[in-house]
């Protein structure tokens, strides 16, 4: 079992990142250790170059993201925790895979279409080729499980297509180089939506801070955001089909279920008939209960920058070593002479 996943150190990590991905980094890290496998979690700082960015903010956000991940339970003693910029093999393997990836495949990526909008000509090349770097990220370590939210599913399918084509084109049939990675997506929290609009994803880049719960929000801010979250006038239904066409209600019930370890159906069986006036304080309290200890730990960790840099340096050294066999094999398979 090889677990590999990444998170961009841009903006503040939020509840969608936590419930959609980080919770599963921690779960799979423990499963990997128990099964004698390995877990690699990295900060996708090279991916951050695909959008306009401020260099000083990126450095700061990188350190904050390490502190956040450790505060959430990613354990550098069990997981190889590092940032891409310290492991050149990611960018190297991306270049090797650029020869295999097809323009048509990248053109079909919905995230590219959404982010580029009508102004494709004005986008960075990195925004277009970013999914090939993402494929390199996971293929380098022969990932079997990739914990991600729903929005990354298509990128993982592309990674499989690239791996398969490379194996077919350059490897003997009985000795494929790359393992085909499987996404690991949580059933209830695959796509946490904005608190202001139940049809838009909760996102670091949303202009409104009221649209998301940041992992570093304090209790008062969380309660205020939940109180102001958009809802409709109806009480909660007692069955799931009653949530059809009620995206905001569905989202809040889903969040409550994910936080309390229950399915949407179980939450509705208990709380059906309740109005939002009664439900929202319960949701707020469940959020505070989960996030307050993370917040405290984050602040302690963040105060010691040297320790955070040491975690990244140690993880990077391990990652550099682990990536060597696959990278070497990829160069060899392509017929590149390296002495
Ligand atoms: P990023 O930084 O946008 O998000 C990090 C993780 O959080 C998940 N996520 C969500 N899950 C549920 N609901 C939401 N509203 C929500 N918003 C974000 C994402 O699905 C992701 O798992 N390209 C990736 C980073 C990356 C990566 C990789 C991931 C780079 N290389 C290799 C996996 C494997 C990204 O920008 O995620």
UniProtKB/TrEMBL annotation:
Function statement: Catalyzes the attachment of tryptophan to tRNA(Trp).
Primary localisation category: cytoplasm
Gene (UniProt): trpS
Pfam families documented for this protein: tRNA-synt_1b
Gene Ontology annotations of biological process type: tryptophanyl-tRNA aminoacylation
Organism annotation: Erythrobacter litoralis
Protein name as annotated: Tryptophan--tRNA ligase
Region span, Disordered: 226-245
Keyword Membrane tagged: no
Binding positions (L-tryptophan): 137
